[in-house]
From TrEMBL:
Family: Belongs to the CD225/Dispanin family.
GO cellular component, one term: plasma membrane
Entry's transmembrane regions: 36-58, 86-110
Keywords: Membrane, Transmembrane, Transmembrane helix
Record localization: Membrane
InterPro entries reported in the protein's UniProt record: CD225/Dispanin_fam, IFITM_antiviral_protein
Main location: membrane
GO biological process, one term: host-mediated suppression of symbiont invasion
Keyword Membrane included in the entry's annotation: yes
Claim: Transmembrane is one of the keywords in the record: yes
Name this polypeptide is given: Interferon-induced transmembrane protein 1 isoform X4
Length: 120
């Protein structure tokens, strides 16, 4: 005995009500990076001329503006913090590398100066 499988084709719905759709526009929160971790790093490690600390202050202001909902203000403070972080990083690296080169080549004669003046 062979069983046959059949599929019934359904027609259009029997209801004559019009189909309506609702579109809800949910505006997503704009992601504004506040660079607070980078600023904190520059404040702790590469704080030449206090640029890292100033960048940290601008990062906190950017985060505050973002919490209030002022996206334009948050972007402005974040842009300033990023610029200060780049300056602090470049200046800190250049000065650190310069100090290491001067120390290794003997241009900084700290041990000789200590011996000549009888210690400190």
């Amino acid at each position: 005995m062979v069983k046959e499988n059949t599929v019934d084709i359904l027609g259009p719905p029997q209801s004559s009500a019009p189909v309506t759709t609702t579109v809800i526009d949910i505006r997503g929160e704009t992601a504004v990076p506040d660079h607070i971790v980078w600023s904190l790093f520059n404040t702790i490690f590469l704080n030449w001329c206090c640029l890292g600390f100033v960048a940290f202050a601008y990062s906190v202001k950017s985060r505050d503006r973002k919490m209030v909902g002022d996206v334009i203000g948050a972007q402005t403070y974040a842009s300033t913090a990023k610029c200060l972080n780049v300056c602090a990083l470049v200046l800190g690296l250049l000065l650190t590398i310069t100090f290491i080169i001067l120390f290794v080549t003997g241009s900084l004669m700290i041990p000789q100066m200590v011996r000549q003046h009888g210690g400190y």
